[in-house]
Design brief:
By secondary structure, the protein is an alpha+beta fold. It contains 9 helices and 17 strands. A 6-stranded mixed beta sheet has the order 1-2-6-3-7-16, with helices on both faces.
């Protein structure tokens, strides 16, 4: 069995290691996890992703005729940000919750993954199929470099059963929306605000592009039974040099979420078409649309995949209920598991873990200890029956 007390302690210890990305990044967490795996009697290896950043990998061998269980556990967090009333690096327990940056996204999931490795290593018998732990870097960044490196160097096999214990509210996340980030630049013409008719207001042009794109996305007919409808957000918008100057340039960052049957390759042409129609109304203005980070197409695990059937059977055995999926802890957040599925075409990559997506990336982030306990029980029984 997975030792819940150790999972709680490991979650606290991991929260106390600053691994913000961008920021200090993962080296401290990587070292701690490597030492933890070594203390179990395993022999962790480091995979260089880029200078100073490594994935940490450990394996417990089993029956080679059985598909491997691969646990993906990212070690970075988003920046701490403001608005906290709890210590973001404290890992304190209050009212049955562990607080801190990364508590649910996903240091609680990392701790459960380590707990499973320790439980299997202690038993040292009856392991059906290799069990592989991978602590990845850069999951919270546009390129998800850690997952990409795993695939590029062939460390993920075609029949691997891949699980990321990211926050899902203890529901099964069987599908993921597609995601494309874009940087859009508009060039206008500077002029004195008192002679504004001589300039081209780039802020006005960009605002028109955002508004028209919002309307176009809202009118798309595509709706997936699990993922819902496409979504568009203008995350940032910067323009202008002074209050009394017509802004000569504007820059915005767009977040586009898509669902089948849309293709990730459709996003840039769609945005460019909208921008082109707006620009035609402002003679002399120009625009550019550039991708930011890796393309992330929609992905879905198969209901018949070993990882999905095993999770569902274990959850039902532990709770007496069918495993829920989707809902308000749904399928918006792209994970390492999703990136592996996108890069390999695998239908055996899924997500199930403690904590709610609603708490991820927020001030006073927390993970419920009850979730750590339930997920630990489900994961242990799944591995035990593998």
């Amino acid at each position: 069995m997975i030792n819940l007390d150790r999972v709680i302690e490991d979650t606290q210890q991991l929260i106390r290691i600053d691994s913000q990305n961008p920021g200090i990044q993962e080296s401290g967490a990587t070292e701690w996890v490597g030492n933890r795996l070594s203390d179990m009697g395993l022999a962790p290896k480091l995979q260089i992703v880029e200078s100073g950043r490594e994935n940490v990998i450990a394996e417990i061998p089993g029956d080679p005729s059985v598909p491997r269980l691969v646990l993906l556990a990212h070690l970075d967090t988003v920046p701490i940000g403001g608005g906290w009333t709890e210590d973001p690096l404290g890992g304190e327990i209050k009212g049955g919750f562990i607080f801190g940056r990364g508590a649910c996204d996903m240091k609680g999931g990392v701790a459960i993954s380590l707990g499973l490795m320790e439980a299997l290593q202690t038993r040292k018998a009856g392991i059906a199929g290799d069990v592989v732990f991978v602590g990845t870097v850069d999951e919270e960044a546009p390129d998800m470099l850690g997952a990409q490196k795993l695939v590029a160097e062939g460390l993920i096999r075609p029949d691997d059963q891949v699980l990321a214990m990211e926050p899902t509210g203890t529901k099964l996340r069987i599908a993921q929306m597609g995601l494309r980030w874009l940087r859009v630049n508009v060039t206008g013409r500077m002029a004195h605000a008192g002679r504004a008719h001589l300039g081209i207001d780039s802020a006005h042009v960009m605002a028109r592009i955002v508004d028209r794109l919002k309307t176009e996305v809202a009118q798309l007919e595509h709706e997936d039974e699990i993922l819902g409808r496409p979504r568009f957000t203008c995350g940032t918008f910067h323009s202008g040099v002074a209050t009394n100057v017509v802004p000569p340039s504007a820059e915005a960052y767009f977040d586009m979420r898509i669902v089948p049957p849309m293709h990730i390759e459709d996003v840039i042409p769609m945005v460019s078409s909208v921008a082109d129609s707006v620009i035609s109304e402002f003679p002399g203005a120009k625009f550019e649309v550039n991708p930011l980070g890796a393309p992330r197409p929609p992905v879905r695990a198969s209901d018949e995949s070993k990882i999905v059937t095993a999770l569902r059977a274990s959850y039902e055995s532990q709770t007496g209920k069918q495993m829920p999926f989707g809902g308000d802890d749904g399928h918006e957040a792209y994970t390492d598991s999703s990136m592996v599925a996108a890069l390999t075409g695998s239908k055996s990559c899924t997500v199930f873990g403690p904590g709610s997506t609603d708490r991820a990336h927020t001030a006073d982030e927390f993970v419920p200890i009850a979730d750590l306990e339930l997920v630990s029980k489900v994961i242990w029984q799944m591995a035990d029956n593998w």
